[in-house]
Amino acid sequence: MNTLIVIAKEPRPGKVKTRLQSEFTPKEAAALARASLSDTLAAVSATPAHRYVVALDGDTGPWLPDHFTVVAQRGDGLDERLAGAFEDAYDGTPMLLVGMDTPQLTPALLSTDWEGHDAVLGLTEDGGYWCLGLRTPDRWALVGVPMSTDHTGRDQLNRLRALGYKVKLLPSLRDMDTPVDAAVIAAAYPELRVSRLHKRLQTSAHPALLFERALDGVEVVATGTDGRMVPSLSEVDRWSAPADEADRLALSRCEGPVLDIGCGPGRIVTALAEQGIAALGVDISEQAVRLTTKRGAPALLRPVEAALPGEGRWGSVLLMDGNIGIGGQPESLLRRCAELIRPDGIVLVEVDPDDDLDDTHPIILRTTTGRRSHPLPWARLGTRAVLRHAHAAGLHPTEDWRTNHRAFLTFRR
After folding, report:
1. Co-location of 196 and 237 in the same domain
2. Residues 9, 141 within the same domain
3. Three-class SS state of 61
4. What pLDDT shows up at residue 331?
5. What SUPFAM superfamilies does the record point to (predicted)?
6. What is the mean pLDDT of residues 62-76?
7. Residue 80: what pLDDT?
8. Which of 22, 46, 167, 365 has the fewest other C-beta atoms within 10 Å?
9. Quick one: pLDDT at residue 129?
10. Whole-angstrom Cα distance, residue 282 to residue 289?
11. Is residue 224 part of a domain?
12. pLDDT (tens digit, 9 = 90+) per residue, 70-123?
């Protein structure tokens, strides 16, 4: 009978599964890590063994079964922590150590017969390894092996063989490190805890999270609730670039100070600042505000409905890049803009080039790995619909122009 060791980190937000945070929040990534750890511990518990050990970085929690002995991880790097785990768990029986990132492992894999071998090694598809078995502790088998590379598994195998070990190789498994990994494992093993949680999370993302992922370069598309494509995020690259000729033509109409509603990564506020025009961006995305301030332009994390600085004193309020759609109630949004400008101020709205477009259906943001947001109230409007809503909001059109396949309207009270 072997001693089974699980080397694990406490599933604490921000401390585990950071690569999952390209699509999941730190709290969601930690929840997936906890589910993966629970699946791993369940498979280990179902495997007959002499002793069960968790080599833990952090504190225990309700996820830990009572029959596991806990030893604290020690050492500076993963290679030293692995060596320490074998030393601290050893009680005279062969030891098989697994990580917490392959929840699809099974008792059949863990109870493999390695009689006649000195060590056992299970490689992962990303170049690492998911298990290592040793008959006795041996620091020289581990310390100095490069960890967390795409050749760690190969290097570990070479080290064992260089020391004269006869190694039995187990089937390769896939680590759950990235959103793609999580999606593949969830699809292949739907019965796992982590798979069931992943399925729930796939349909419950906050739209702001996926918008921020788009600003980070993750491919995100928008569809209607019926699945039809909506080109709402097709110009993220343009939003992140410096203001172009069409932007500058629109900004030439602005009277300072300027409030940019839904400022995104800040190209408009930055362009205004470069012209010496006082401007402020507001957005509900933390990443958008960070990107704007990183450019040296001021931005505020706040929804347009909340109290804003200088209400009733702005020379211009901007709704660029289709931001007339914010909230899905264009008349209410335009009324709010009218409240924000001074009596002689302007509201500048970028509208859809299709004059007849009048779509106020919600949209859903989706990633290429299948994660999707809950419905986001939105509107896509051409000139005719915006003119109708503006009239109801007490705004009078003063200018209508087009350039580079983009269309704009200017209003005053």
Report:
1. no
2. yes
3. coil
4. 97
5. Nucleotide-diphospho-sugar transferases, S-adenosyl-L-methionine-dependent methyltransferases
6. 95
7. 97
8. 46
9. 97
10. 7
11. no
12. 999 999 999 999 999 999 999 999 999 999 999 999 999 999 999 999 999 999
Task: Decide the pairing of beta strands 229-230 and 220-224.
Answer: antiparallel
Three-state secondary structure call for residue 370: coil
3-class SS of residue 276:
coil
Residue 291 exposed, middle or buried by CB count within 10 Å (0-12, 13-18, 19+) = buried
> 314 has which bridge partners?
341
Residues 196 and 277 occupy one common structural domain: no
Q: Are both 159 and 285 inside the same structural domain?
A: no
Q: Are 319 and 262 in contact (CB under 8 A)?
A: yes
pLDDT tens digits along 129-173: 999 999 999 999 999 999 999 999 999 999 999 999 999 999 999
CA–chain centroid gap for 299, Å, is 22
Alpha-carbon gap, residue 138 to 82, rounded angstroms: 10
Distance CA 43, CA 52 (A): 12
Count other Cβ atoms within 10 Å, centred on residue 55. 22
Q: Is-contact 165 119, C-beta < 8 A?
A: yes
> Do 195 and 259 have their domain in common?
no
What element of type H or E holds 78? helix 78-89
Stretch (H or E) spanning 286 = helix 286-294
Looking at residue 368, what is its pLDDT? Answer: 84
The two three-digit tokens of residue 313, written as one number:
């004193």
Domain range enclosing 54: 3-202
For residue 175, the SS3 value is: coil
For residues 279-286, average pLDDT: 95
Tokens of 2: 């072997």
Task: Give burial (CB, 10 Å; 0-12/13-18/19+) of 48.
Answer: exposed
Average pLDDT, the chain: 94
Average pLDDT of the segment spanning 274-294: 94
Answer yes or no: is 394 within a domain.
Answer: yes
Total number of domains constituting the chain: 2
In a domain, 287, yes or no: yes
User: Residue 342: what pLDDT?
Assistant: 97
DSSP state of 372: B
Same domain? 244 vs 169: no
